[in-house]
Amino acid sequence: MPPIETPDFQQLALQIKAWGGDLGFQQIGISDTDLSAAERHLQDWLSKHRHGDMYYMAAHGFKRSRPALLQAGTRSIVSARMDYLPEDPSRGRELLDQPATAFVSRYALGRDYHKLLRNRLQKLADKIAAEIGPFGYRAFVDSAPVLEKAIAEKAGLGWIGKHSNLINRKAGSWFFLGEIYTDLPLPADAAVGNHCGQCTACLDICPTQAIVAPYQVDARRCVSYLTIELQGSIPEHLRPLLGNRIYGCDDCQLICPWNRFAKLSAEADFKPRHKLDHSSLLELFGWTESEFLRKTEGSAIRRIGHKRWLRNIAVALGNGIASEDSITALRQKLLHDDEGVREHADWALRRLNTHRSTAEERRG
Questions:
Q1: Where are the beta strands (DSSP E) in 173-281?
Q2: Where are the domains of the chain?
Q3: 3 state SS of 21
Q4: Which of 115, 86, 116 has its CA nearest to residue 25?
Q5: pTM value?
Q6: Annotated binding-site residue numbers for tRNA
Q7: How many CA atoms lie within 13 A of 282 on its CB side?
Q8: 253 alpha-carbon distance from chain centroid
Q9: Per the annotation, where are the binding residues?
Q10: What would the pLDDT profile of 27-54 be if each residue is shown by its tens digit?
């Protein structure tokens, strides 16, 4: 029986990158499994309780930063980047100046990216197996304790910026990441240098000052955490700072000078659905739970549920214009069966009534 031929891993790495391009990824990089520097950063972040209620960030022991503990036998990691920007970023900046219009983070305007990326990564793994035979691997897209940005940084896909997002010199930061942990000894790519320089635009623009120092984000103040991850009541002192942001926040990306190189995505699944790119707060506030479930089917937004959806919009309405329609809609939610919805609607009403009284006094 002839001996099994050992693959040329250098050539295989080149093929993997070519296949990735054919599958719609904008870039593929390969890293080793040494995440010791990222592990120290993570442990420091956790020790300061900056993860808030995201208890899963502290779970799983060291599996997040030691890949072989998560997937036994992991020797190298294939990191993939896929652009998702659905429209010109200037549109996002315009929306933030329109208090009656809802702002939804650009990544959530279309279909949920998890399945799309996961399917493409599986196809990439299938191509590898077809080339060299069965091998050990596991693909991830936010589906397990994985330090995806630290891995992508090591794989040469970009550098982690002062806002903690990955930045690519030729593509900005509007992209998703996915990984394939493998037992193959693939050659690692070289990391790229950090090119943030003296720029502090992301720190300065953050509406809640969640970027407490360069490369340090306190999730407990972050709009994305407050509107997506936080299940309870949004702290009152932070509510006015949310503006019309009802799901996530893109301010640090909208202001980043490297995003002038970002390109619009060609993926149809990332295009806006159900007018989420330009809907009024009142329109979305009027969605019943069944409407919410139907219109967020296949969307990342569905995970927050209808109650948190209403909670977020109530805060945005309270930050907006004291119109009769807004006040009427909020009063109706005072009868909602969820205490959290009622509490945030009451806060919004009190805030709008205060604004209206102040305006009347000035006119008088």
A1: 175-182, 211-213, 216-217, 245-247
A2: 9-279
A3: helix
A4: 116
A5: 0.94
A6: 307
A7: 15
A8: 11
A9: 64, 142, 166, 177, 196, 199, 202, 206, 222, 224, 249-250, 252, 256, 307
A10: 999 999 999 999 999 999 999 999 999 9
Q: Active site includes 142?
A: yes
- Residue whose C-alpha is closest to residue 262's, from 273, 274, 250: 250
Query: What is residue 165's DSSP assignment?
Result: S
Binding site members for cob(II)alamin = 64, 142, 166, 177, 224, 249-250
H or E segment at 333? helix 324-333
Residue 363's pLDDT band (cuts 50, 70, 90):
low
CB atoms within 10 A of CB 229: 19
Q: Which of 44, 142, 337, 338 is catalytic?
A: 142
User: Among residues 342, 293, 75, 272, which one has the least CA distance to residue 183?
Assistant: 75
Sign of CA dihedral 236, 242, 247, 251: negative
CB distance 110 to 269 below 8 Å: yes
Binding residue numbers for [4Fe-4S] cluster: 196, 199, 202, 206, 222, 249, 252, 256
In whole angstroms, what is the distance from residue 144 CA to residue 75 CA? 18
